[in-house]
Amino acid sequence: MGLIEVAQNFTAIVCGSDVLIYNNRNSKNQKLDPVSDNENHENSKVKILNQDSIDEKHKNSKTQINDPFRKYESFNVSENQKAKEGNSNGGSSNKTNLYSIVSVKASRDGQYLAIAFEEKSAVVWCTKTWTRLCIHRLVKRPMAIAITSDSSTLLVADKSGDVYSFPLKGSQPKDKQDRLSEQEKNEGKGEENQEENNEGEREKYQEKNNGEREKDREENNGEREKDQEENNRGEREKDQEENNKRGREKDQEENNKGGREKDQEENNKGEKEKEVTPVTPKPILGHLSMLLDMAITEDDKYIITCDRDEKIRVSHYPNSYNIVSFCLGHKEFVTQVELLPQNNNLLLSCSGDGTLILWDYLQGECLAELDTREYTPCDLLHMYEEDRKQNEKSESFKKFLPDFPGVKHFAVRSINATQHIVAVVLDRVPAILLFQIDVPNMTPIVVKELEDQPGEVAWLQSGELIHVHEFSRDIITVSELQNNDLKPVAEHPLVSLGRRCAGLFNGVYDGPDFDVLYKQQYDNVADYMKKKQKRLAVEKAAQDGIIVPFKKGRWS
């Protein structure tokens, strides 16, 4: 899912339709100073990438192109208030907002950041200057994104089960073609000028030859005529050369002036087209069901995808039609797959059935399985039980809900190649579960109860755990693992940032709705038996003379 992305130099946090960027450099024990209106964006520790950068009506706006991010003081609070009123009046929730961000992903070198929007688009940013590189238009709504290790390709998995590849810097091939075409035009102009010069020299030589023939004839007629003809010919040649020279200079100036104007027009046209250069996506692989997550190995040899039909598929990359293995063992949809950071030979996955499974994905072998229901206290399931009771009271439509919530998200921190710590978030459970992986075993550490359900968790580079809460006093909470317990870090800069940017976190997208992902079960036999008993009762009443018998059909 990827709603918090921690890179080496920055941390990206999704807040509704915006991405909050925090500079990690020298951030420990440092207070977050207010960002003044006159402060340069290059030196700001806080930036916001907003949805206006891809809005159709702002596509031609110079302000949005030159200013791709805005400071958090400029956030429009009235829009949030309207959204709250719309939700309270039965309007659509922010989960269905077209500008909601589905996922963010940074390249391994930290130079690029890709953002996938629900409005069927993916935007790539350069993190050095925080300028937008390109916008990729998608056919279906994206579910997950990934970037190859060489930072050349963006992979997008959509809700129809397909994976497409895009060049990460999609507008560059068009620029190269424009530069090549300009170079060819300039070469053509040079050849044309060269031909004109050669033609002038040929005429000069031809006149010289004619003069020599006239000279022979004049020598026979006398010295006076010879001298006079030579003088006249010299004057004519001198005048002709001067005229040709002035004409060539004038033509050269006109050609240079026209060429510069034409090149300037082409450059301006290229700059305008650079923002919206379309790139044809290349299909990589496809599933028969909705894709929920995707991962690619560090050597870019394998791509791993998971879907709604409990399957994890391991394929070669880029020839993904060659399937390596299937990891089968989950009983419900697989919500997330992730390679262990310091051991890329192992894969960790979670599912809607409430389990975590450690895989040897190349062999498709399950190494360890952990059921979270064994370690979750019953008093933490009150939010989930309330939804189950409301579902049972509904007469119009009853959704299928299992007796235990599924695993929504997890984050892995590696101590070494064999020891890892996993933070787990369950659906509608206000707690974070910590487990330790000692390959191939998984053991519980602690269950940390919270005020409300965390939207997303991630491990910072310094070892702290960051989690986002929409309805808590501290929107962003940072905790540190001490003596097998999570202790909050009150003075962390990200905590202060969350308090000051609380207005941005209205309607945080926390992934797909689990109630929709569960396969619905319908009892068609019970409906059939109910109709059959009613029909038999009517027939018996007709035989007893209680009601008038009726004809069933034409031949009855």
Account of the protein in words:
Residues 172-192, 199-276 have a biased composition (Basic and acidic residues). Keywords: Nucleus, Repeat, tRNA processing, WD repeat. Residues 164-281 are annotated as: Disordered. Its main location: nucleus. The protein has helices at residues 62-66, 77-88, 172-221, 223-274, 382-393, 493-500, 514-517, 524-543, and strands at residues 4-6, 10-15, 18-23, 46-49, 69-70, 101-106, 112-117, 121-126, 131-137, 142-147, 153-158, 162-167, 282-286, 291-296, 302-307, 311-316, 323-328, 334-340, 343-351, 355-360, 365-371, 407-414, 419-426, 431-438, 441-449, 456-459, 465-468, 476-482, 485-488. With 556 residues, the protein is α+β, with helices and mostly antiparallel strands. A five-stranded antiparallel sheet has the order 1-2-3-4-5, with no helix packed on it. Strands 6-7-8-9 form a four-stranded antiparallel sheet, with no helix packed on it. Helix 3 packs antiparallel against helix 4. Residues 26-44, 53-98, 172-177 and 272-276 have low confidence and may be disordered.
Stretches where pLDDT is under 50 for at least 5 consecutive residues are: 26-44, 53-98, 172-177, 272-276
* Number of E-state strands: 29
**Alpha carbon gyration radius:** 36 Å
Q: Helix amount, in percent?
A: 25-40%
Count of discrete alpha- or pi-helical segments spanning 4 or more residues: 8
What structural category arises from helix and sheet content? alpha+beta
**Rough outline:** elongated
Estimate what percentage of residues fall within beta strands.
25-35%
Report the span from N to C terminus.
61 Å
Overall pLDDT confidence? 77
Largest beta-sheet characterization: 5 strands, antiparallel
Spatial strand sequence of the major β-sheet: 1-2-3-4-5
